[in-house]
Amino acid sequence: MSEITRRDAIKLGALLAAASAVKWPVSLVVKPPEQEQSLAVEEKVPVMCNMCGAGCGLYFVRKGKVMYFEPNLEHPQPGLCARAASSIQLWNHPLRLKKPLKRVGERGEAKFQEVDWETALNEISQKLRDIVAKYGPESVVFTYHDFYAWHMPLIAFTLGTPNYVQHASCCHNASTYARGLVLGAGGPPTADPDYENARYIVFVGRVLNAAMGMVQRLQKARERGVKLVFVDPRMGNAAMSEAEWIPIIPGTDAAFLLSMVHVIIQEKLYDEAWVKKYTNACFLIKQDGTPVTGKDVGKDTTDYVVYDLDAKDFVSYKAAKNPALEWEGDAPNVGRVRTAFLLLRDRAALYPPEEAEKITGVPADTIRRIAREFATSRGVVEDGWWTSKNANDSDAFRAALILNALVGSIDTRGGLYVQLGAKFPASATAAPDKVTTITGGTLPPIKAKRIDTLKYPAVPHVFDAVLDAVITGQPYPVKALIIVGTEPFTRDVNTQKLVETLKKLELVVVIDVVPNDSVDWADYVLPDNVYLEREELATVKWTPHAAVQLSHKVLDPPPGVDARNGFWIMMEIVRRTVPDRAAAVGYTEKYADYHKFEEFETLVKRKVLESLSKAWNVPVEEIEKALEEKGFYVLKYWIPRAGPGALKTPSGLVEIYSLKALDYKDDPLPKWKPPPYKKPAAPNEFYLVNGRDQFVTAHAVWTKNIIFLVDRRVWMNPRDAERLGIKDGDLVELEGLDNGFKQRARVKVTNRVREGVLFVYNRAGGRTSRLIAGEYEVMREGINPNKFTLSWLEPLNGSTGLNSTVRVTRVGA
Ligand SMILES: Nc1nc2c(c(=O)[nH]1)N[C@H]1C(S)=C(S)[C@@H](COP(=O)(O)OP(=O)(O)OC[C@H]3O[C@@H](n4cnc5c(=O)[nH]c(N)nc54)[C@H](O)[C@@H]3O)O[C@H]1N2
Ligand SMILES: Nc1nc2c(c(=O)[nH]1)N[C@H]1C(S)=C(S)[C@@H](COP(=O)(O)OP(=O)(O)OC[C@H]3O[C@@H](n4cnc5c(=O)[nH]c(N)nc54)[C@H](O)[C@@H]3O)O[C@H]1N2
Ligand code: SF4
Ligand SMILES: [Mo]
Fold first, then answer.
1. Which stretches make up the 4Fe-4S Mo/W bis-MGD-type domain (predicted)?
2. Which of 130, 213, 397, 712 is the most exposed place for a label (fewest CB within 10 A)?
């Protein structure tokens, strides 16, 4: 049997409506007409790859029964990497979740019985009704990652909970905090190097084999001879050709980058005019750390003031003709004041290269050379994606942004762009007086505050706060967890605490496509569509331009797989729990009939398109036509300029001295803090770091091509191996220095990892689900590095520490 496409599905819609006894989607799995089996019949439909969070533009091509992908080369972020190419294997994966499952054993035992959708959804909703009645809707938490991220506010607010808590504290919270403080920008794609035009790029803890659009843009820069520097305890694949690798001690990046700041200031290698014009370096700061305003010094303005060397007076920073960068003196009423630049200079002076060498293990001469090369070529320091590694990383990424500011590399050619933003509307917004949804519905306000930002106010999506609430009942109880397309066991810190939480919850639901580790702990497992089986309208992430894209639905689930669209699954759970609220947002009982759901999706899509059309003053039809035919639409092109326009910082400028940090009672300047895990002290104690490469991936680690390419060994430097008498391929046991957790793995001896450091790929191995079977059992081999961690989180932004330290014992050949 073969499957049919969306177009066929539309044609079939009428037929199906007549055959009311037949339930979608099973009935859609039909044999296509004979002539369509011919390779000559070609269909080429744009889709957005979902095999990692990058969302590249692909074409899904079908010639008869042959299906494959091509890159969408005109797309602002053209894709197609090995993970994308293998994604068809997720669709007809032998371990694919096929029917809703209900737990019959203990949590963790993975004993289930198959149930039908009605039973599963009704039982879940019955339980949720009890929980909501007893503890309030806020006791229900959704945790998720990329899948349905846009839909989450609508789903959660309709249920009445503010708690949709993403993966971000384990991903980008450190750099998001930094971007917020220095640039007033948001998550990783909101700023990134202008790769095409870059002259010199410093990557800190980035492998870059993630997000093909970037790799392709970078290729253009490579052809022009850009210099690439990878600061990383291990050498990733991207660092292997025509690049410099700087093996650094884990968790010391802030010291390295601040030392670069020191060299650049000391040797006057910064762009003084740019710094004066586009940053708040000239702001005058009082002894208590707060900025001087006109009012403070008796002027007729509430603006921040600078010292104007021409006027020889305190002048609004907006009006100054010749602001002083290095000025210190007495100001009326406020006493001694100094420019922000002088404070930065003094902070960076704590890290002269010789001192930084002691912290980072990078030779002082190297730090000096990189600083000089970077400044004289007006380079760019990449601002980070997965930056939650040591629970001290936000300072590193603040320093990275300051380095860019010092050389005038923000919103300039070859510098860091600040993304235009597509003005994509939210699916729902919670205002103090009411909730409004994309469908035009309104609901009473959400009373409870988010469980994460109560504890980590600066950046949301800190899952550890959910665990705390489950275990302690504080600040309010959390009783139900719905895990959607994300895997807390390979995602989050502190596995013991996660297990304790999963045992304690009153309801655990997992919505996934394959048996990830948390499936074993679920009361109900609900099989979702893979991305090729649903439509998705989204922004284009990794582009400076404002652009949107449409991923078309190209497949139905294969025979025997009764998967449903996760948006429907969640809306149905919500409707069956709180029918009146669901009706208020336009989601009524008629959508219980799954094949009517497309109407609701179409309504939502229409509203988004109308909103975009209004925001950009482009006809809906024009956007729609482009999305249908090419899969994307560019709303506005970014053009490099001399420096950024008004930023969303308190001053509107690049804030090398962060005024927002003062609101959080945080240090306005970055500094290096030692990471929270125990420092290796004995000869057999190591840092354990982890990361990615082309063949290791979020979402796709399950596909067959990838699974057998992945390296599940622990990388060890030859000198360490020799010292410990360990040979390539030997079996070792790792024991967490902080939590005593033990796990065994084989060693790969390679000089691609710094001495004293071990490296493993995250998500590649150490899988535990009892439902993993057959040749896929190889996924059990190797290490899950997260199991060696405790709840190490940065205050304010909750960025976690996923590196750790371990003791190594050889246990066999
Ligand atoms: N192939 C692939 N691509 C992906 C994904 C995937 O899973 N696989 N996931 C997507 C997602 S969600 C994200 S966030 C991005 C992430 O993409 P990146 O931000 O590029 O993150 P990683 O690829 O994990 O690279 C982490 C690197 O940091 C190094 N490292 C570890 N600790 C330290 C440290 O203390 N200091 C320094 N300087 N380096 C350190 C590791 O050795 C590793 O080489 O990739 C996206 N694309
Ligand atoms: N030690 C360590 N920890 C890390 C990282 C690291 O590099 N090292 N990286 C961190 C980062 S940057 C991130 S983003 C997180 C990522 O962590 P997760 O968000 O957990 O990402 P994945 O591991 O890719 O899990 C994705 C899940 O989605 C499922 N899935 C795939 N397609 C679909 C679909 O269409 N629908 C549904 N419902 N499910 C689907 C997959 O089967 C898988 O279970 O991990 C973080 N944790
Ligand atoms: S980089 Fe990520 S989104 Fe892009 S093609 Fe590869 S897996 Fe897909
Ligand atoms: Mo991530």
1. 42-93
2. 130
Q: Which atom of ligand 1 is nearest to the CA of 675?
A: 35
Write down which residue in 38, 58, 91 finishes a domain: 91
CA dihedral 118, 119, 122, 126 (to 10 degrees): 180
- Which tens digit of pLDDT belongs to each residue from 718-757? 999 999 999 999 999 999 999 999 999 999 999 999 999 9
| Secondary structure (3-state) at 534 | coil
> CA–CA separation, 442 vs 436, rounded Å?
5
| Helix or strand run (H / E) with residue 204 | strand 200-204
Place of tokens 């970014």: 638
Across 101-169, where does the E strand assignment appear?
101-103, 112-114, 140-144, 164-166
CB 269 within 8 A of CB 372: yes
Q: Which residues line ligand 1 (CB under 6 A)?
A: 52-54, 83, 171, 204-211, 231-234, 236, 248, 250-251, 253, 385-386, 389-390, 689, 691-692, 694, 696-698, 759, 803
Distance 286 CA to ligand 1 centre (A): 40
Answer for the pair 100, 115: CB distance below 8 angstroms, yes or no: yes
Work out which ligand 2 atom sits closest to the CA atom of 699. 24
CA pair distance 155, 571, nearest whole angstrom: 6
Q: Which of 268, 370, 284, 179 is nearest to 797 (CA)?
A: 179
Helix (H) / strand (E) containing 221: helix 212-223
User: Can you say how many angstroms the Cα of residue 209 is from the centroid of all Cα atoms in its chain?
Assistant: 15
Decide: 543 and 420 in contact? Cβ < 8 Å. no
Cβ–Cβ < 8 Å for 238, 246 = no
Q: Which helix (H) or strand (E) holds 246?
A: strand 243-246
736 and 649 co-located in one domain: no
Residues 724 and 653 in one domain: no
pLDDT in tens, 11-48: 333 333 333 222 222 222 333 344 444 556 688 999 99
The residue range of the domain holding 52 is 6-91
**What predicted TM-score, i.e. pTM, was given to this entire model?**
0.95
Quote the CA–CA distance of 387 and 262 in Å, as a whole number: 23
E strand or H helix at 526, and its extent? Answer: strand 524-527
Check whether residue 199 and residue 348 sit in a common domain. Answer: yes
Name the pairing type of β-strands 685-691 and 757-761: parallel
